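Worked example 2:
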Amino acid sequence: MSEDKKKSIMDYDTVALDEENHALVIIDQTQLPYNTEILSLTKQEDIWSAIYLLKVRGAPAIGVAAAIGIYLAAREIEASDFEEFLQKFRKAKDYLDSARPTAVNLSWALKRMEGIVLDNKNKSVSEIVEELHKEAVKIREEDIWVCKTIGEYGLTLVKPGDGLLTHCNAGQLATVKYGTATAPMYLGQERGYHFRIFSDETRPLLQGARLTSFELKESGLDVTVICDNMSASVMRKGWVNAVFVGCDRVAANGDTANKIGTSMVALAAKRYGVPMYICAPTSTIDLNTPTGKEIHIEERPAAEVVEMWYEKPMAPEGVKVFNPAFDVTDHDLIAGIVTEYGIAREPYSESLKEIFRRKQEALKGESR
Protein backbone atom coordinates (compact mmCIF):
# COMPACT_ATOMS: atom_id res chain seq x y z
CA MET A 1 0.00 0.00 0.00
CA SER A 2 1.14 3.56 -0.57
CA GLU A 3 2.23 5.90 2.17
CA ASP A 4 -0.16 8.20 3.94
CA LYS A 5 1.63 11.53 3.33
CA LYS A 6 1.05 12.65 6.91
CA LYS A 7 2.95 9.66 8.23
CA SER A 8 6.70 9.70 8.93
CA ILE A 9 8.86 6.75 7.94
CA MET A 10 9.56 6.35 11.66
CA ASP A 11 5.89 5.53 12.25
CA TYR A 12 6.18 2.28 10.29
CA ASP A 13 7.58 -1.02 11.56
CA THR A 14 10.70 -1.99 9.62
CA VAL A 15 9.85 -5.66 10.04
CA ALA A 16 6.84 -7.22 11.76
CA LEU A 17 4.59 -10.26 11.90
CA ASP A 18 1.00 -9.89 10.73
CA GLU A 19 -0.67 -12.37 13.07
CA GLU A 20 -4.05 -12.26 11.36
CA ASN A 21 -2.82 -12.85 7.82
CA HIS A 22 0.24 -14.93 8.75
CA ALA A 23 2.59 -12.68 6.82
CA LEU A 24 5.99 -11.04 7.13
CA VAL A 25 5.43 -7.29 6.82
CA ILE A 26 8.36 -5.08 5.76
CA ILE A 27 9.11 -1.67 4.33
CA ASP A 28 10.44 -2.10 0.79
CA GLN A 29 13.67 -0.21 1.30
CA THR A 30 14.53 -0.24 -2.40
CA GLN A 31 11.70 2.28 -2.89
CA LEU A 32 12.91 4.80 -0.31
CA PRO A 33 13.07 7.74 0.14
CA TYR A 34 10.48 8.74 -2.45
CA ASN A 35 7.91 6.00 -1.98
CA THR A 36 7.02 4.13 1.18
CA GLU A 37 5.75 0.74 0.06
CA ILE A 38 4.67 -1.80 2.68
CA LEU A 39 5.02 -5.43 1.57
CA SER A 40 3.05 -8.31 3.06
CA LEU A 41 4.90 -11.55 2.25
CA THR A 42 3.59 -15.07 2.76
CA LYS A 43 5.50 -17.17 0.20
CA GLN A 44 9.01 -18.38 0.98
CA GLU A 45 10.36 -17.41 -2.42
CA ASP A 46 9.09 -13.86 -1.87
CA ILE A 47 10.75 -13.70 1.56
CA TRP A 48 14.01 -15.04 0.09
CA SER A 49 13.90 -12.47 -2.68
CA ALA A 50 13.15 -9.65 -0.22
CA ILE A 51 16.30 -10.53 1.72
CA TYR A 52 18.48 -11.01 -1.38
CA LEU A 53 17.26 -7.87 -3.14
CA LEU A 54 17.70 -5.76 0.03
CA LYS A 55 14.02 -4.95 0.36
CA VAL A 56 14.68 -5.85 3.97
CA ARG A 57 18.30 -5.18 4.96
CA GLY A 58 20.55 -4.52 7.91
CA ALA A 59 21.85 -7.45 9.94
CA PRO A 60 19.34 -7.22 12.86
CA ALA A 61 16.33 -6.70 10.57
CA ILE A 62 17.43 -9.63 8.41
CA GLY A 63 17.61 -11.81 11.52
CA VAL A 64 14.11 -10.84 12.62
CA ALA A 65 12.77 -11.36 9.09
CA ALA A 66 14.41 -14.79 8.96
CA ALA A 67 12.86 -15.83 12.28
CA ILE A 68 9.41 -14.77 11.14
CA GLY A 69 9.98 -16.28 7.71
CA ILE A 70 10.97 -19.72 8.98
CA TYR A 71 8.03 -19.70 11.40
CA LEU A 72 5.71 -19.04 8.45
CA ALA A 73 7.40 -21.86 6.54
CA ALA A 74 6.87 -24.20 9.50
CA ARG A 75 3.14 -23.39 9.51
CA GLU A 76 2.90 -24.79 5.99
CA ILE A 77 4.75 -28.04 6.67
CA GLU A 78 2.65 -31.18 6.50
CA ALA A 79 4.30 -33.98 8.46
CA SER A 80 3.13 -37.15 10.15
CA ASP A 81 5.96 -37.25 12.70
CA PHE A 82 8.83 -35.22 14.11
CA GLU A 83 11.54 -36.58 11.79
CA GLU A 84 9.55 -35.69 8.69
CA PHE A 85 8.85 -32.23 10.10
CA LEU A 86 12.53 -31.70 10.95
CA GLN A 87 13.64 -32.74 7.47
CA LYS A 88 11.25 -30.30 5.80
CA PHE A 89 12.07 -27.57 8.31
CA ARG A 90 15.79 -27.88 7.59
CA LYS A 91 15.16 -27.70 3.85
CA ALA A 92 13.26 -24.42 4.36
CA LYS A 93 15.99 -23.18 6.73
CA ASP A 94 18.78 -23.87 4.23
CA TYR A 95 16.81 -22.14 1.49
CA LEU A 96 16.39 -18.91 3.48
CA ASP A 97 19.98 -19.10 4.71
CA SER A 98 21.26 -18.93 1.13
CA ALA A 99 19.86 -15.44 0.53
CA ARG A 100 22.73 -13.40 2.13
CA PRO A 101 25.94 -15.28 3.08
CA THR A 102 27.82 -12.47 4.86
CA ALA A 103 25.20 -11.27 7.35
CA VAL A 104 25.63 -13.66 10.27
CA ASN A 105 22.29 -12.66 11.82
CA LEU A 106 20.52 -14.58 9.07
CA SER A 107 22.12 -17.90 9.99
CA TRP A 108 22.07 -16.98 13.71
CA ALA A 109 18.29 -16.52 13.74
CA LEU A 110 17.66 -19.64 11.68
CA LYS A 111 19.90 -21.75 13.93
CA ARG A 112 18.14 -20.37 16.98
CA MET A 113 14.78 -21.33 15.50
CA GLU A 114 16.12 -24.78 14.64
CA GLY A 115 17.16 -25.11 18.29
CA ILE A 116 13.54 -24.54 19.30
CA VAL A 117 12.49 -27.41 17.06
CA LEU A 118 15.11 -29.76 18.51
CA ASP A 119 14.34 -28.74 22.10
CA ASN A 120 10.67 -29.61 21.61
CA LYS A 121 10.97 -32.87 19.67
CA ASN A 122 8.72 -34.67 22.14
CA LYS A 123 5.83 -32.31 21.39
CA SER A 124 3.32 -32.50 18.57
CA VAL A 125 4.01 -30.69 15.29
CA SER A 126 1.34 -28.08 16.06
CA GLU A 127 2.91 -27.42 19.47
CA ILE A 128 6.36 -27.04 17.90
CA VAL A 129 4.97 -24.53 15.42
CA GLU A 130 3.51 -22.51 18.28
CA GLU A 131 6.88 -22.56 20.06
CA LEU A 132 8.45 -21.23 16.86
CA HIS A 133 5.83 -18.48 16.80
CA LYS A 134 6.72 -17.45 20.36
CA GLU A 135 10.45 -17.45 19.56
CA ALA A 136 10.04 -15.30 16.45
CA VAL A 137 8.12 -12.71 18.47
CA LYS A 138 10.77 -12.91 21.21
CA ILE A 139 13.61 -12.31 18.75
CA ARG A 140 11.85 -9.20 17.47
CA GLU A 141 11.25 -7.84 20.98
CA GLU A 142 14.84 -8.56 21.98
CA ASP A 143 16.12 -6.51 19.06
CA ILE A 144 14.48 -3.37 20.45
CA TRP A 145 16.13 -3.86 23.86
CA VAL A 146 19.49 -4.69 22.29
CA CYS A 147 19.57 -1.55 20.14
CA LYS A 148 18.50 0.77 22.95
CA THR A 149 21.15 -0.69 25.24
CA ILE A 150 23.83 -0.30 22.56
CA GLY A 151 22.71 3.31 22.32
CA GLU A 152 23.18 3.83 26.05
CA TYR A 153 26.72 2.45 25.96
CA GLY A 154 27.50 4.41 22.79
CA LEU A 155 26.32 7.64 24.38
CA THR A 156 29.01 7.30 27.07
CA LEU A 157 31.66 7.66 24.34
CA VAL A 158 30.61 11.13 23.14
CA LYS A 159 29.54 14.50 24.50
CA PRO A 160 26.85 17.07 23.60
CA GLY A 161 27.55 18.99 20.39
CA ASP A 162 29.88 16.37 18.92
CA GLY A 163 30.17 15.73 15.22
CA LEU A 164 29.49 12.09 14.35
CA LEU A 165 30.01 10.26 11.08
CA THR A 166 28.31 7.07 9.94
CA HIS A 167 28.50 4.86 6.86
CA CYS A 168 25.71 2.91 5.16
CA ASN A 169 22.52 2.47 7.19
CA ALA A 170 22.68 0.96 10.64
CA GLY A 171 19.61 2.90 11.68
CA GLN A 172 16.04 2.07 12.57
CA LEU A 173 15.52 0.93 8.99
CA ALA A 174 18.13 -1.79 9.61
CA THR A 175 16.54 -2.96 12.87
CA VAL A 176 13.17 -2.98 14.61
CA LYS A 177 13.80 0.30 16.48
CA TYR A 178 16.65 2.75 17.26
CA GLY A 179 19.20 1.09 15.00
CA THR A 180 22.69 0.15 16.14
CA ALA A 181 25.08 2.88 14.98
CA THR A 182 22.28 5.45 15.13
CA ALA A 183 21.03 4.43 18.58
CA PRO A 184 23.39 6.87 20.38
CA MET A 185 22.23 9.57 17.97
CA TYR A 186 18.54 9.00 18.65
CA LEU A 187 19.05 8.79 22.42
CA GLY A 188 21.20 11.90 22.26
CA GLN A 189 18.45 13.68 20.35
CA GLU A 190 15.98 12.81 23.11
CA ARG A 191 18.38 14.23 25.71
CA GLY A 192 19.34 17.45 23.97
CA TYR A 193 22.84 16.53 22.77
CA HIS A 194 22.43 18.35 19.42
CA PHE A 195 24.80 16.12 17.48
CA ARG A 196 25.96 17.10 13.99
CA ILE A 197 25.76 13.97 11.83
CA PHE A 198 27.65 13.29 8.61
CA SER A 199 26.16 10.47 6.54
CA ASP A 200 28.34 8.89 3.85
CA GLU A 201 26.28 8.33 0.70
CA THR A 202 27.56 4.69 0.53
CA ARG A 203 28.15 3.67 -3.05
CA PRO A 204 26.94 1.79 -4.97
CA LEU A 205 23.49 1.36 -3.38
CA LEU A 206 23.43 4.72 -1.58
CA GLN A 207 22.03 3.45 1.72
CA GLY A 208 23.52 6.43 3.54
CA ALA A 209 21.98 8.98 1.21
CA ARG A 210 18.65 7.23 0.67
CA LEU A 211 18.06 5.71 4.08
CA THR A 212 20.22 7.10 6.89
CA SER A 213 19.83 10.76 5.97
CA PHE A 214 16.12 10.13 5.34
CA GLU A 215 15.34 8.65 8.74
CA LEU A 216 17.58 11.07 10.66
CA LYS A 217 16.07 14.08 8.89
CA GLU A 218 12.56 12.74 9.52
CA SER A 219 13.48 12.52 13.21
CA GLY A 220 14.73 16.11 13.37
CA LEU A 221 18.47 15.44 13.65
CA ASP A 222 21.08 17.70 12.06
CA VAL A 223 22.34 15.50 9.20
CA THR A 224 24.59 16.29 6.23
CA VAL A 225 25.11 13.89 3.32
CA ILE A 226 28.65 13.60 2.01
CA CYS A 227 30.14 11.50 -0.80
CA ASP A 228 32.13 8.49 0.37
CA ASN A 229 35.39 10.11 -0.72
CA MET A 230 34.75 13.18 1.47
CA SER A 231 35.00 11.53 4.88
CA ALA A 232 38.73 12.25 5.23
CA SER A 233 38.14 15.91 4.38
CA VAL A 234 35.56 16.47 7.12
CA MET A 235 37.78 14.65 9.61
CA ARG A 236 40.77 16.77 8.63
CA LYS A 237 38.70 19.90 9.30
CA GLY A 238 38.00 18.64 12.82
CA TRP A 239 34.28 18.32 12.21
CA VAL A 240 34.08 14.67 13.31
CA ASN A 241 34.63 13.59 16.91
CA ALA A 242 33.64 9.95 16.52
CA VAL A 243 32.59 7.42 13.90
CA PHE A 244 29.75 4.99 14.59
CA VAL A 245 29.01 2.19 12.13
CA GLY A 246 27.19 -1.11 12.28
CA CYS A 247 28.46 -4.42 10.96
CA ASP A 248 27.28 -7.72 9.57
CA ARG A 249 29.87 -9.97 11.21
CA VAL A 250 32.53 -9.67 13.90
CA ALA A 251 35.37 -12.20 13.86
CA ALA A 252 36.91 -13.56 17.05
CA ASN A 253 39.95 -11.27 16.75
CA GLY A 254 37.79 -8.13 16.36
CA ASP A 255 37.96 -7.80 12.57
CA THR A 256 34.56 -6.68 11.28
CA ALA A 257 32.73 -6.99 7.97
CA ASN A 258 30.53 -4.04 7.13
CA LYS A 259 29.23 -2.32 4.01
CA ILE A 260 31.88 -1.70 1.37
CA GLY A 261 33.78 1.50 2.08
CA THR A 262 33.84 1.11 5.86
CA SER A 263 37.51 0.15 5.89
CA MET A 264 38.37 3.40 4.06
CA VAL A 265 36.52 5.37 6.73
CA ALA A 266 38.45 3.48 9.40
CA LEU A 267 41.79 4.27 7.75
CA ALA A 268 40.95 7.98 7.53
CA ALA A 269 39.74 8.01 11.14
CA LYS A 270 42.99 6.41 12.31
CA ARG A 271 45.01 9.02 10.39
CA TYR A 272 43.14 11.95 11.96
CA GLY A 273 42.81 10.56 15.48
CA VAL A 274 39.05 10.03 15.34
CA PRO A 275 37.82 6.98 17.30
CA MET A 276 35.99 4.40 15.19
CA TYR A 277 33.30 2.44 17.02
CA ILE A 278 31.53 -0.65 15.72
CA CYS A 279 28.00 -1.05 17.07
CA ALA A 280 27.36 -4.79 17.08
CA PRO A 281 24.68 -6.87 18.77
CA THR A 282 26.21 -10.06 20.16
CA SER A 283 24.20 -11.91 17.51
CA THR A 284 26.63 -10.52 14.91
CA ILE A 285 29.73 -11.73 16.79
CA ASP A 286 31.00 -15.01 15.36
CA LEU A 287 33.66 -16.49 17.62
CA ASN A 288 33.90 -19.46 15.26
CA THR A 289 35.40 -17.20 12.59
CA PRO A 290 39.01 -16.56 13.67
CA THR A 291 39.77 -13.44 11.59
CA GLY A 292 38.31 -11.27 8.85
CA LYS A 293 40.13 -13.35 6.24
CA GLU A 294 37.65 -16.18 6.83
CA ILE A 295 34.55 -14.02 6.33
CA HIS A 296 32.85 -14.80 3.03
CA ILE A 297 32.27 -11.54 1.15
CA GLU A 298 29.19 -11.44 -1.02
CA GLU A 299 29.66 -10.15 -4.57
CA ARG A 300 26.71 -8.48 -6.26
CA PRO A 301 25.68 -7.73 -9.86
CA ALA A 302 27.71 -5.29 -11.95
CA ALA A 303 24.55 -3.36 -12.85
CA GLU A 304 24.43 -1.93 -9.32
CA VAL A 305 27.63 -0.01 -10.07
CA VAL A 306 27.28 1.03 -13.72
CA GLU A 307 23.54 1.16 -14.42
CA MET A 308 21.28 1.41 -11.37
CA TRP A 309 21.24 5.17 -10.83
CA TYR A 310 21.74 6.32 -14.41
CA GLU A 311 19.51 6.85 -17.44
CA LYS A 312 22.27 5.28 -19.53
CA PRO A 313 25.17 3.05 -18.44
CA MET A 314 27.97 5.23 -17.07
CA ALA A 315 30.85 2.93 -18.04
CA PRO A 316 31.92 1.36 -21.34
CA GLU A 317 29.85 -1.61 -22.44
CA GLY A 318 31.50 -4.88 -21.48
CA VAL A 319 33.95 -3.36 -19.00
CA LYS A 320 34.77 -5.56 -16.02
CA VAL A 321 33.17 -4.58 -12.71
CA PHE A 322 34.14 -5.69 -9.20
CA ASN A 323 31.24 -5.23 -6.77
CA PRO A 324 31.84 -6.68 -3.29
CA ALA A 325 28.99 -5.84 -0.93
CA PHE A 326 31.24 -5.66 2.14
CA ASP A 327 34.82 -5.08 3.19
CA VAL A 328 36.73 -6.06 6.31
CA THR A 329 37.95 -3.47 8.81
CA ASP A 330 41.03 -4.68 10.66
CA HIS A 331 40.70 -4.79 14.43
CA ASP A 332 43.64 -2.44 15.01
CA LEU A 333 41.65 0.36 13.35
CA ILE A 334 38.74 -0.05 15.78
CA ALA A 335 38.60 1.89 19.06
CA GLY A 336 35.80 -0.23 20.50
CA ILE A 337 33.01 -2.68 19.69
CA VAL A 338 29.79 -1.55 21.37
CA THR A 339 27.45 -4.40 22.31
CA GLU A 340 24.39 -4.75 24.50
CA TYR A 341 26.62 -6.23 27.22
CA GLY A 342 29.29 -3.57 27.22
CA ILE A 343 32.11 -2.16 25.13
CA ALA A 344 34.85 -4.52 23.97
CA ARG A 345 38.34 -3.14 23.38
CA GLU A 346 41.75 -4.53 22.41
CA PRO A 347 42.68 -7.30 22.77
CA TYR A 348 39.37 -8.36 21.22
CA SER A 349 40.22 -12.06 21.42
CA GLU A 350 39.81 -11.64 25.18
CA SER A 351 37.26 -8.83 25.53
CA LEU A 352 34.72 -10.46 23.17
CA LYS A 353 34.85 -13.63 25.26
CA GLU A 354 34.19 -11.45 28.33
CA ILE A 355 31.16 -9.94 26.56
CA PHE A 356 29.75 -13.43 26.03
CA ARG A 357 30.51 -14.35 29.65
CA ARG A 358 28.41 -11.38 30.76
CA LYS A 359 25.68 -12.43 28.38
CA GLN A 360 25.61 -15.97 29.75
CA GLU A 361 25.45 -14.64 33.30
CA ALA A 362 22.56 -12.38 32.39
CA LEU A 363 20.69 -15.22 30.70
CA LYS A 364 21.22 -17.46 33.73
CA GLY A 365 19.80 -14.72 35.93
CA GLU A 366 16.71 -14.47 33.74
CA SER A 367 16.12 -18.24 33.87
CA ARG A 368 16.23 -18.41 37.67
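The chain has a mean pLDDT of 95. The radius of gyration is 20 Å.
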